[in-house]
Design goal:
Length: 86
Amino acid sequence: MEGDALDWYLWMEDRFPFCDWYDFKIQLSACLPNILTEILEHTYLKGLKPEIQSELSMSEPIGLREIMDTSIQAEAHICTLWQAWK
């Protein structure tokens, strides 16, 4: 994450700590009860780094939880590739 998405995430984490990404989704949904899941998914995806977005487009995860889980795996994969390249 970067930019406004990262700032917002850090603000939320500071005020409402969470255990995992699913807990984060629950807390986010509680703060924004009238927001459609599709909007949450789109907003989350738009806040990801382009290389993670690219990884996700290849796996096509369904649902916010799967999108979050897959983005974490994608970031770990990218970090591994980056370390191997160095």
